[in-house]
Design brief:
The protein is built from no helices and four strands. The protein is mostly beta strands.
Length: 77
């Protein structure tokens, strides 16, 4: 298994990966985004492969209590 970081533009690059069959999938470090893959890739010796994966944002739900400066709950209006 290889883990590759993604840069600000969404690009990733792996070097020194052994020839073989691979399944690519993406995961956001906070779990907020996922890829519905996996995408299958077959690499031969010395081969380069370009793969484009599309991410879809997941709807997130956050719950909590809003407090004032003294730690007391704030009433909803």
């Amino acid at each position: 298994m290889y883990t590759l970081p993604v840069d600000e533009s969404g690009s990733f690059e792996g070097q020194g990966i052994e020839p073989g069959s691979y399944s690519l999938s993406l995961r956001h470090s906070l779990g907020a985004v996922k890829f519905s893959g996996p995408e299958k890739v077959e690499l031969s010796e010395g081969q380069q492969s370009r793969v484009e994966l599309e991410l879809a944002a997941q709807q997130q739900r956050f719950t909590g209590v809003v407090v004032d400066e003294d730690g007391g709950a704030v009433e909803a209006r």
